Predict the structure.
Amino acid sequence: MKSAVIVFPGSNCDRDAQTALRQVTGAEPAMVWHKDGALPDGLDLIVLPGGFSYGDYLRSGAMAAASPIGDAVRAHAARGGYVLAICNGFQVATEMGLLPGALLRNASLNFCCRPQKLSIATNSSVYTAAYKDQSEVVFPIAHHDGNYFADAATLDRLEGEGRVAFRYVGNPNGSARDIAGILSENGRVLGMMPHPERAMAGQEGGNDGVRLFESVLAAA
């Protein structure tokens, strides 16, 4: 699998994503600076990493969505390429129009940073197939604007089309219907607020993230 990580000013989880991809694929991902405006040929997977792109000025993810690399990322997704959008990357993906909804401030107005239990809402997506009969995972969370919001019609559509990938157990930030991760219509784009790339080593973050990356590797 040929992969790339997009690096924005303020990204701080790009190296975690790089390490996770290297661990699972055995190949070095391309690290693409947001101003490059072009992607390497033949990519299977793009990761939009966590962090605070542009310092979260204006609105989280909004300025990153207007970066020169944005059109190339949209084109990759439009032709069926895989996009994994994590934390700030999820915010960027909604601002790019790759996923519906928006990410608001946590209901508590506090920054949440801890291991978080999630239920796996579907085991049939390209990102969750390797979990098979596993029903829950624990991923670290680290966000201030992780409260997923969409109108009722959009939420009903996501539910009805099986596009909710993960839900919070205990819902620490007030997300609509406990949603922690959603899929695009074709299932190739996953946006999620928790950090699977920090759950790879079996130590502080556990190793539940490994199967997510193995799932997309198998699909690609």
